[in-house]
Amino acid sequence: MVKRSSLMTRILTDISYAAVTAFACFSFYIDGLQSRAIDDAVRSSIRQTGRQAADGVAGWLESRMLLTQAAQEIKSLINSSTSEVDNGVRPVEQTGDALRAIGTEIGQINAHMEAIAVSAREQTVGLAEVNTAVSQMEQVTRQNTEMVKDTNAATSTLAQEASRLRQLLSHFRLANSTTLRAVAAGT
Questions:
Q1: Quick count: other Cβ atoms within 10 Å of Cβ 180?
Q2: Mean pLDDT per 10-residue run, the chain (187 residues)?
Q3: What is the 3-state secondary structure (H, E, C) of 56-83?
């Protein structure tokens, strides 16, 4: 592609060349040197300059047409890219919304887990208190069992000693001729 400034310079150069040639021919004409060769040279020069100018303008028009087509293609690509970016942004926004919702759900789950942990700690304390109470009840029950055993042993020993005492008392006689045995027997 030909740059616009160099193309314009070339056109202006060709036009100035044609003007100088025309001026030179005009000068020869004024001086009385009219010759057919000079006229032909001027015409040839003007035709050559015209062709070059026409070629330059054609090149410039072709360049302008190519630039217009390129600009339209670029505009089309920009519109297409904008559309594709918009289509890509929507799923990203939807993903962001979904992730925010998941974050909220996770926060709620964490709150529930914390409540469960607090409840578990409270239950642990309660179970420890129940365990302590059961241990104390077991200890009291053991102590009661030991006391019952001791009481039974003491009662058994006392019954044996009472029986032996009755035997000993049965050997003695009282003044009114009742025996201590009858007293000991409770009659």
A1: 15
A2: 56 59 54 52 62 63 75 81 78 89 94 94 93 94 94 93 88 63 55
A3: HHHHHHHHHHHHHHHHHHHHHHHHHHHH
